[in-house]
Amino acid sequence: MYDYYLGGKDHYVVDAEAAEQVLEHTPDARRFAHANRLFMHRAVRVLTREHGVRQFLDIGTGVPTEPNLHQVAQAEAAECRVFYADNDPIVLAHARALLRGTPEGRIAYVQADVREPKSILESYEARNTLDFDRPIALSLCALMHFVPDEHGAYEVVGELVDALPSGSFLVLSHGTTDFDPEGMARTQDVYVRAGIPIQLRSKARIARFFDGLELLPPGLAVTHRWHPEPDQPLADLTDAQAGFYGGVARKP
Fold first, then answer.
1. 245 forms bridges with which residues in the sheet?
2. CA distance linking residue 70 with residue 99, whole number of Å
3. Which pLDDT band, with edges at 50, 70 and 90, does 113 fall under?
4. What pLDDT score was predicted for residue 149?
5. How far from each other are the two terminal CA atoms of the chain, in whole angstroms?
6. Of 13-17, 176-180, 194-198, 247-251, where does the model show the most confidence?
7. Which GO terms describe its biological process (predicted)?
8. Residues β-bridged to residue 167
């Protein structure tokens, strides 16, 4: 469905049908997806340029959509290492075919579920790609709203962050009910009927994912307002049209 919102071609008819149902209730869903994607790009650039980050762990990768995280990171620093994880076997097939990086850097991928952090953190691929003695940026973009509270959403993020060394970062974006509670409630119903667990959260509840971390300015913000760049696409969006909060925080 996310690929459909982004205008991609790697989805099934059932995905397109469900996405169209979402668009009936939330016409800005495509803008949500695009604004979220651009937030991820800017966060990666800020971390590589201003904080010297050279390692990224991206969970909930989705079907590769150019530019993907490794392309953004390695355009800034060719030696960047990027490790991807997703629970969708279709993503695995695409990743193997499409994820190619620089000779100086390294890219790897594992099929795993964020609700089982050890399956990611202790995988051979992760340990062979990332140096857990050096800072790592953990990217959880547009993912944690698919992990309801009863599935241990906050505990999952806590376990992932705990495994990272001091000086690492959490990049997280999350859909919210703050701007259109009724429309987003209907949108949640579409996902649930399609068999997809989802829990959109308020800003205060999203902020809990960053507990114990040091948020970078401007803090937790609507995605298009986080480090906007000159002449960036979608700069004229309203907060309701962006629909997601995003933030980047450092682990002390």
1. 174, 222
2. 8
3. very high
4. 96
5. 36
6. 247-251
7. methylation
8. none
Give the integer Cα–Cα distance in Å for 6 and 16. 11
Residue listed under structure tokens 């933030």: 247
Query: How many Cβ atoms from other residues are within 10 Å of residue 76's Cβ?
Result: 15
Q: Which domains does the chain have, with CATH numbers?
A: 23-250 (3.40.50.150)
**Residue (of 229, 210, 201, 89) closest to 145 by Cα position:** 201
Provide the H-helix boundaries in the chain.
2-5, 13-25, 29-51, 69-76, 89-98, 117-121, 124-129, 153-162, 181-193, 203-207, 239-242
The pair of structure tokens assigned to 58 is 């991206």
C-alpha of 10 from chain center: 18
Rg value, the chain, Cα: 17
| Alpha-carbon gap, residue 223 to 245, rounded angstroms | 5
What span, in angstroms and rounded, lies between the C-alpha atoms of 166 and 6?
A: 35
Beta strand 244-250 with 169-175: parallel, antiparallel or unpaired? antiparallel
| CA dihedral sign of residues 1, 38, 109, 211 | negative
Mean pLDDT, rounded, for 57-86? 90
Per-residue pLDDT of 115-169, as tens digits, reads 999 999 999 999 999 999 999 999 999 999 999 999 999 999 999 999 999 999 9
